[in-house]
Design a protein that fits this description.
It comes from Thalassolituus oleivorans MIL-1. InterPro entries: LRAT_dom. This is LRAT domain-containing protein. It is a single chain. The chain is α+β, with helices and mostly antiparallel strands. It has 2 domains: about 90 residues, Alpha-Beta Complex (endopeptidase fold (from Nostoc punctiforme)), CATH 3.90.1720; about 35 residues, no CATH class. Helices cover about 40% and strands about 20% of the residues. It has a 5-stranded antiparallel beta sheet with strand order 4-3-2-1-5. A hairpin with a 2-residue loop joins strand 1 and strand 2. The longest helix has 16 residues. The chain is elongated. The chain starts with 8 loop residues before the first strand and ends with a helix.
Length: about 140
């Protein structure tokens, strides 16, 4: 845990996607998972967040309102397209609620739908997965 400071965004691999959290100090990480749709975010230890995987650190200087945003998101549930771990991490650390993974998947799905001659659901699925995969590079 060297060189990790309060407000840094932490990432690790989770299947096809990257999982995000925010280091809030004292070995604690703000985390949210899909099965927490009704419970909101949680605080876990760095070790629990890492889940035995390598963790990368994105250095961030906490912006005004950092603690207020932590308290706010502790009550919010998980929503894949609007309130996932990447949205939460960027919102708390940078005051920007964005998810590049979702943006890439949606863009890929749209392109797949436009270019495909097969069933729409299949085009959306393939395009979305392709967009997500490209966002991981």
């Amino acid at each position: 845990m060297k060189n990790i400071t309060k407000g840094d965004i932490l990432t690790r691999r989770k299947g096809l996607v990257t999982h995000y959290g925010v280091y809030i100090g004292n070995d604690l990480v703000l985390d949210i998972l899909p099965n927490q749709s009704k419970r909101g975010c949680r605080l876990v230890t760095f070790e629990e967040f890492s889940d035995g995987k390598a963790v990368s650190v994105v250095k961030c200087e906490p912006v005004d309102g950092f603690e207020d945003r932590i308290n706010e998101v502790l009550t919010l549930g998980y929503q894949l397209l609007s309130n996932n771990c990447e949205h939460i991490a960027n919102y708390v650390a940078r005051n920007q609620r964005i998810s590049k993974q979702v943006q890439a998947a949606v863009a890929g799905a749209a392109i797949g739908a436009l270019l495909s001659k097969g069933p729409l659901w299949q085009s959306l699925l393939i395009g979305g997965v392709a967009g997500l995969a490209l966002s991981q590079r």
